[in-house]
């Protein structure tokens, strides 16, 4: 992979840091009145999802990381691995482990497309679309006439995720959920 | 339509730099901001006209560049009467303006376009506008007052001025004495402050980082902070003197407002021999760091030999001043076209 110098760092660039692939989130150029310039860089470690803040002397460089983000359709879980398939018509399949799937497991629904991050052709992270439509499999019966004051109750969805929903929602209904906040958006 | 809007692309860019990106040819500043910028430039010219300081214009291109190892000069090749020559885009109009002073110009100011390679960010742009002025015979303290008066005038409010010594302000915010702390301690503190491997960093680089990260952001909040008596190793083109503690310090000041450096002033070095030594030391530092060689400004040295009157001078970032006056978050918002779309 090519090396990238601090002045080429921009949001989304994938680089290697401490042996892990990272995505640059933010790069701030800092310079005192006179003297050495620095780049204060925020990077997201793609293996752990954690954000790091690191400083480099301006002009230093990092090795690029062979990272690709691809849309893939979720197929099935075999008890250990989660299987995805490319949506480009190649039918090429990838298996992701628990670490790569992480919290996204609770939003995985067959035939929905997810963003799969590949590092050296191995899935290292799966992210859900911002909104997803899921069926309610379990919730207490709806209460009449209590729709205006914002009361809510827990509901279990077909993927196993539990979200707060308004009291009027019943089992079997399909809801639109914001996966980033795990919040009910509306009926689908 | 709100006042200040005109039909066309300026309506689109009012939203810059939010999610909707303007077309690639569009300016980065709104028309309202460009009008404000023009007003601020007029205020600056008026300020100096009232004080009988002569506006001058000097070349952007020079036969010498800045040798400062921390400034990256841009250069180009031009066809001159002497044949093809490498000329340097000025990182500041200092050399040419000092040559005017040596020729007896008296007090002068300039709104100059200057260039610093690689400097881009919220508060940096490769090409920017620098206000530089020189006051032969003026006392250093009087120049600090004048600098603060100008900033207050442009910002449209009288701001309280706090004067601080580098050593004291550093101690107050970092908890270390910048002149006496051991290099190991400075490196350790730098690593803690910035998540960086600083084990091989020099003293000045550690000081620069701690100053940028822990001191500057706290300065000038609701006022103007003037920092003076910098370490002698950071003198650049300033004279040095002994401070009250007997330490050698640079006769240099910096003015900060809202955590941002706005101006840098010097009691100018007028000794050609010392200036030559600093150029040579810069060249050596550049060679050691593997940086390209920059031709020193030989004509400045000749002017110093001919005699530069004792002078104080200030360089001020006009774009940053306008950014603060307009409460903008980035320089792009007050520049017609920033370096990304030039």
Automatic annotation (TrEMBL), chain A:
<comment type="function">
    <text>Involved in peptide bond synthesis. Alleviates ribosome stalling that occurs when 3 or more consecutive Pro residues or the sequence PPG is present in a protein, possibly by augmenting the peptidyl transferase activity of the ribosome. Modification of Lys-34 is required for alleviation.</text>
</comment>
<keyword id="KW-0379">Hydroxylation</keyword>
<dbReference type="InterPro" id="IPR013185">
    <property type="entry name" value="Transl_elong_KOW-like"/>
</dbReference>
<feature type="domain" description="Elongation factor P C-terminal">
    <location>
        <begin position="132"/>
        <end position="187"/>
    </location>
</feature>
<comment type="similarity">
    <text>Belongs to the elongation factor P family.</text>
</comment>
<dbReference type="Pfam" id="PF08207">
    <property type="entry name" value="EFP_N"/>
</dbReference>
<dbReference type="InterPro" id="IPR020599">
    <property type="entry name" value="Transl_elong_fac_P/YeiP"/>
</dbReference>
<dbReference type="GO" id="GO:0043043">
    <property type="term" value="P:peptide biosynthetic process"/>
</dbReference>
<dbReference type="InterPro" id="IPR014722">
    <property type="entry name" value="Rib_uL2_dom2"/>
</dbReference>
<comment type="pathway">
    <text>Protein biosynthesis; polypeptide chain elongation.</text>
</comment>
<dbReference type="InterPro" id="IPR011768">
    <property type="entry name" value="Transl_elongation_fac_P"/>
</dbReference>
<dbReference type="InterPro" id="IPR015365">
    <property type="entry name" value="Elong-fact-P_C"/>
</dbReference>
<dbReference type="Pfam" id="PF01132">
    <property type="entry name" value="EFP"/>
</dbReference>
<dbReference type="InterPro" id="IPR013852">
    <property type="entry name" value="Transl_elong_P/YeiP_CS"/>
</dbReference>
<feature type="modified residue" description="N6-(3,6-diaminohexanoyl)-5-hydroxylysine">
    <location>
        <position position="34"/>
    </location>
</feature>
<keyword id="KW-0648">Protein biosynthesis</keyword>
<dbReference type="InterPro" id="IPR012340">
    <property type="entry name" value="NA-bd_OB-fold"/>
</dbReference>
<keyword id="KW-0251">Elongation factor</keyword>
<feature type="domain" description="Translation elongation factor P/YeiP central">
    <location>
        <begin position="69"/>
        <end position="124"/>
    </location>
</feature>
<dbReference type="GO" id="GO:0003746">
    <property type="term" value="F:translation elongation factor activity"/>
</dbReference>
<protein>
    <recommendedName>
        <fullName>Elongation factor P</fullName>
    </recommendedName>
</protein>
<dbReference type="InterPro" id="IPR008991">
    <property type="entry name" value="Translation_prot_SH3-like_sf"/>
</dbReference>
<dbReference type="GO" id="GO:0005829">
    <property type="term" value="C:cytosol"/>
</dbReference>
<keyword id="KW-0963">Cytoplasm</keyword>
<dbReference type="InterPro" id="IPR001059">
    <property type="entry name" value="Transl_elong_P/YeiP_cen"/>
</dbReference>
<dbReference type="Pfam" id="PF09285">
    <property type="entry name" value="Elong-fact-P_C"/>
</dbReference>
């Amino acid at each position: 992979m090519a090396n990238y110098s601090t002045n080429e760092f921009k949001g989304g660039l994938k680089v290697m840091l401490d042996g892990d692939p990272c995505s640059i989130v933010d790069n701030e150029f800092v310079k005192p009145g006179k003297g050495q310039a620095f780049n204060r860089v925020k990077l997201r470690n793609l293996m752990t999802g954690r954000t790091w803040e690191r400083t480099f002397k301006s002009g230093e460089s990092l090795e690029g990381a062979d990272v690709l983000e691809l849309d893939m359709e979720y197929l099935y879980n075999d008890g250990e691995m989660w299987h995805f398939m490319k949506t480009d018509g190649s039918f090429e399949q990838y298996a992701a482990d628990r670490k790569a799937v992480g919290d996204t497991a609770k939003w995985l629904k067959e035939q929905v497309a997810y963003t799969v991050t590949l590092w050296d052709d191995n899935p290292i992270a799966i992210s859900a679309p911002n909104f997803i439509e899921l069926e309610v499999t379990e919730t207490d019966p709806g209460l009449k006439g209590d729709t205006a004051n914002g009361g809510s109750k827990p509901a279990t969805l077909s993927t196993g995720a539990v979200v707060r929903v308004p009291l009027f929602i019943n089992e079997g209904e399909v809801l639109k959920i914001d996966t980033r906040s795990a919040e009910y958006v509306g009926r689908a | 339509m709100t006042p200040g809007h005109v039909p066309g692309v300026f309506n689109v860019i009012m939203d810059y730099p939010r999610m909707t990106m303007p077309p690639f040819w569009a300016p980065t500043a709104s028309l309202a901001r460009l009008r404000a910028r023009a007003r601020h430039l007029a205020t600056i010219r008026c300020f100096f006209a009232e004080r009988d300081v002569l506006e001058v214009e000097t070349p952007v291109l020079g036969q010498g560049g800045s040798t400062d190892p921390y400034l990256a000069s841009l250069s180009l090749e031009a066809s001159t009467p002497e044949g093809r020559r490498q000329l340097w885009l000025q990182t500041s109009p200092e050399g040419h303006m000092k040559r005017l002073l040596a020729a007896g110009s008296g007090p002068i100011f300039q709104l100059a376009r200057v260039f610093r390679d690689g400097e881009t960010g919220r508060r940096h742009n490769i090409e920017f506008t620098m206000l530089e002025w020189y006051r032969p015979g003026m006392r250093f303290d009087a120049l600090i007052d004048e600098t603060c008066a100008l900033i207050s005038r442009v910002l449209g409010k009288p701001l309280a001025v706090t004067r601080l010594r580098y050593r004291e302000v550093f101690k107050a915010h970092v908890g270390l004495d910048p002149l006496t702390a051991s290099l190991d301690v400075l490196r350790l503190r730098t690593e803690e402050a910035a998540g960086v491997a600083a084990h091989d960093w020099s003293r000045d680089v550690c000081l620069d980082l701690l100053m940028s990260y822990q001191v500057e952001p706290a300065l000038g909040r609701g006022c103007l902070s003037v920092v003076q008596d910098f370490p002698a190793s950071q003198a650049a083109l300033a004279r040095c003197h002994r401070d009250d503690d007997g330490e050698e310090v640079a006769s240099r000041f910096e003015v900060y407002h809202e955590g941002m450096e706005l101006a840098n002033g010097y009691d100018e070095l007028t000794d050609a021999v010392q200036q030559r030594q600093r150029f040579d030391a810069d060249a050596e530092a550049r060679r050691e760091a593997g940086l390209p060689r920059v031709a020193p400004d030989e004509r400045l040295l000749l002017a110093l030999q001919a005699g530069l009157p004792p002078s104080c001078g200030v360089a001020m970032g006009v774009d940053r001043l306008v950014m603060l006056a307009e409460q903008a978050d980035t320089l792009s918002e007050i520049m017609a076209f920033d370096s990304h779309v030039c």
